[in-house]
Amino acid sequence: MSRDGTLDGAIDIAAPAAAVLRPAPRRRGGRLLRACVTNPGFLIGLLILMTVSGIALLAPWLFPGDPQDMVAAPTLWPGEDWAYPLGTDSLGRDVASGLAHGARVSLMVGLSATAIGLVIGTLVGASAGYFGGHVDNILSRLTEVFQTVPTFLLVIVIVAIVQPAASTIALAIGVASWPTVARLVRAQFRSLREADFVMAARSLSYSAPRIIVMEILPNALPPIIVTTSVMVANAILTEAGLSFLAMGDPNLVSWGSMIGDGRDLLRTDWFLTALPGAAIALTVLSLNLVGDGLNDILNPRSGLA
Amino acid sequence: MSLLTVENLHTRYVSRGRTVTAVDGVSLTVAGGETVGLVGESGCGKSTLGKTILRLVDPAEGSIRIAGEEIATLRQAALAPFRRRMQMVFQDPYGSLNPRQTVATLLETPLKVHGIGGRAERRAQVLDMLARVGLPGDAAERYPHEFSGGQRQRIGIARALVLKPQLVICDEPVSALDLSIQAQILNLLVGLKRDLGLSYLFISHDLSVVRYFADRVMVMYLGRIVESADHVTLWRNPQHPYSRALLSAVPVADPTRARAPMTMRGELGSAPTTGCRFRSRCPVAIDRCSVEDPVLRDVGAQHRVACHRPG
């Protein structure tokens, strides 16, 4: 053995330079495609979600005019007059138009509430998990305080204080739903901050914001993405509940308010509640299916990755 | 002046109200161009010592000086210039590289953070560093999971060296790799040391690796240095019973050399409050060992040992 040069009989240093790198694995697109094939639930969920989103986007062209306008005789049954394929309600408003415009409200409130909840929850959870100590103590107590109040009650209280508009409802649901995200993100950060690659980043004097955003967050994303779809579903349910109680935006037709309006005619014209109810159920179901599918795709231990 | 001087360093962990002293009064120096080996069994505090020197873990007391400048008490923000001069190679090449970043990002970010060069210059440095560690230039656009363990460790070494440090703390850099790959990585480290004039603090539990690598070797037991000597002296004439036990556990590829294996009793436990911390496992312990804690003393040129009954 020589001490200055190479280990006797050892392989030449240059050898691995020429070694062939492993072929690049299939990209995410391939994984997504395989997930669709192996997980029919995910595919069905995705199709329903895309249909609902498409109807929501195209509502102003499919059903021009205000869905709150009285356009025909009241309580036409579906199929009775093909100009109004899903019938009309007790005031003669087009149910099909209401469902399409209601999809806009539901999805918009669901998405913006989730975005707000994600931003607050990620900020709180990341700070608590990364810094630990007193920061963690204070932020965790704050999270618990918010979690002890039932989400729906908190939303009702907030909406009762501010004006019930779609934007304020989204804000209220977002403010009430962040603790779930915060707890999830905090747990992720607590385990990842001890990872060697975070140690390496610290030893290179990366700043705390850089480590949180560039190093840890990308690795903490998969469970957050999965939670997101369930959060959208919950936000849609909360908005529907609020509108059902006539606490929603009075200027917009939403699925919840359609159920609330149809309630009085439940025994004679049950389709007025059943149709928007089915719309809510389908949308929430599709979001949950997509969430389950994403969990399988993004979880490296599922065998799909 | 030594590049790195550590004096009376203590690191303590508090868990559930109990204080564990992982590093218990360690002093050492690493001179420019020198390789110092640090050996000891798992849990003796050698990794914690490395992380404390880099200030990834805060020291409880003691002094860490880089070229004479004290860094043990500096705030994290003030450490940046010193971290350009000392870097770390981690044990696990799978956990130490961010799986979501390309090799180019992994190597370029340190330069960006430390405000070195423009975009083109940084790119050139990244490619130069890849070539130095024996990786092809097209590795830059790939992700860590596309490489084997040995190649990943090359990336880890490139990241540690991209800031052109003087001292590199290698925390068991080859223990997670296959034997044939270990030799490649060790040869790479030797070559880089020669080309870049590096100093290494080489942490390992593998004595044969340290022997190949280190000019001077320190043996650590339960947070303390129990023996320190140049590698020839330590191998020929180990003085501390713990060093002798460690060395006798190294297999020798020579069947004609019969050796009486030296045995130790028991497991690595917690340090006793009085006397020598090795005495419960020591085959030559006497009454004095349970009363008086031995301190490091000279037993020869550059040879220090902490034992009442050396030899």
From TrEMBL, chain A:
Top-rank lineage group of the source organism: Bacteria
Keyword annotations: Cell membrane, Membrane, Peptide transport, Protein transport, Transmembrane, Transmembrane helix, Transport
Name listed for the protein in its UniProt record: ABC transporter permease
GO biological process assignments: peptide transport; protein transport; transmembrane transport
Coiled-coil boundaries: none
Localization: Cell membrane
Species of origin: Neoroseomonas lacus
Family of this protein: Belongs to the binding-protein-dependent transport system permease family.
Residue ranges constituting the ABC transmembrane type-1 domain according to the UniProt record: 103-291
Membrane topology value: Multi-pass membrane protein
Keyword Transmembrane in record: yes
InterPro entries: BP-dependent_transpt_permease, MetI-like, MetI-like_sf
Major site of localization recorded for this protein: membrane
Annotated transmembrane regions: 41-63, 107-131, 152-176, 269-290
GO annotation, cellular component aspect: plasma membrane
From TrEMBL, chain B:
Residue ranges occupied by any ABC transporter domain in the UniProt entry: 4-247
Presence of keyword ATP-binding: yes
Protein name: ABC transporter ATP-binding protein
Family note: Belongs to the ABC transporter superfamily.
InterPro entries membership: AAA+_ATPase, ABC_transp_ATP-bind, ABC_transporter-like_ATP-bd, ABC_transporter-like_CS, Oligopep_ABC_C, P-loop_NTPase
Top-rank taxon: Bacteria
One Gene Ontology CC term in the entry: plasma membrane
Ranges annotated as spanning the membrane: none
PROSITE patterns: ABC_TRANSPORTER_1, ABC_TRANSPORTER_2
Keyword terms of this UniProt record: ATP-binding, Nucleotide-binding, Transport
Gene Ontology biological-process annotations: peptide transport; transmembrane transport
Topology relative to the membrane: Peripheral membrane protein
Pfam families: ABC_tran, oligo_HPY
NCBIfam families for this protein: oligo_HPY (TIGR01727)
Cellular location(s): Cell inner membrane
Example GO molecular function: ATP hydrolysis activity
